[in-house]
Amino acid sequence: MSRLNELYKKMVYYYREDPGRIQHFVKVHSFARLIGQEEHLEEKTLYILEAAALVHDIGIRPALEKYGREDGALQQQEGPQPAREMMRGLGFAPDVIERVAYLVGHHHSYADIDGMDYQILVEADFLVNYYENGMDQEAIKKSVKKIFRTETGKQLAKEMYFPEEFQMSETWAQDGLQDLEDFIEEQGIYIRQ
Ligand SMILES: [Fe+2]
Fold first, then answer.
1. CB neighbours of 88 closer than 8 A, spacing ≥ 6?
2. Domain of 98: which CATH number?
3. What's the 42 CA to ligand 1 centre distance in angstroms?
4. Number of domains in the chain
5. Cβ neighbours, 10 Å, residue 120
6. pLDDT tens track, the chain, 193 positions
7. pTM for the whole thing?
8. Residue 148: left (phi > 0), alpha (psi -120 to 50), or beta?
9. With DSSP H G I counted as helix, E B as strand and the rest as coil, what are the percentages for the chain, rounded to 5?
10. How far apart are the first and last CA of the chain?
11. Residue 46: domain span
12. Residues with Cβ within 5 Å of ion ligand 1?
């Protein structure tokens, strides 16, 4: 069995009896992997991204236990240590563990995104949180514009939350032909049949 699957199962166990949290990271991992593959991340970066997506919210449990709160800052503070321990126990390479721990410790900070693994983790988490938090459409649009960078992430957001932007006008075919004719005229191209 792959290490990532081992980590996946450990996280299910970690959040046992809490299907909401389990399904959250499953969705974030799935979007992250899809975006990472479609954006052609190199193998190691994709591997780090997948591991980070699985464990990204590991800090919620210790934050709740210690402080009775689970805000983003506390999650970032409490997450890296249990992530390191879990991954060490499964034999992940030290450099992979360190980058994942860094991502866990920063995934609610959007000012200093320093790599595609970080960028895509944030996008995948937003894609899931917009829905889970019931955010309204205008707020989603603004946040996508501000934060999303990958074409795949933007496409997923649009298709899930504002698909009307994809609808074609009733005259789109005609408009298209007109554009083409204008272009041909501008270019002085003469088309013979
Ligand atoms: Fe999350």
1. 97
2. 1.10.3210.10
3. 23
4. 1
5. 30
6. 699 999 999 999 999 999 999 999 999 999 999 999 999 999 999 999 999 999 999 999 999 999 999 888 999 999 999 999 999 999 999 999 999 999 999 999 998 899 999 999 999 999 999 999 999 999 999 999 999 999 999 999 999 999 887 554 555 555 555 655 665 556 554 444 3
7. 0.84
8. beta
9. 75, 0, 25
10. 61
11. 3-168
12. 57, 125
Rounded CA-CA distance 83/86 in Å is 5
Distance 29 CA to ligand 1 centre (A): 10
Lookup: tokens for 101: 């721990």
Rounded distance from Cα 67 to ligand 1 centre (Å): 19
Structure tokens at 188: 């002085």
187 CA distance to ligand 1 middle (Å): 51
3-state secondary structure 77-113: HHCHHHHHHHHHHCCCCHHHHHHHHHHHCCCCCCCCC
Question: Per the domain annotation, does 182 fall within a domain?
Answer: no
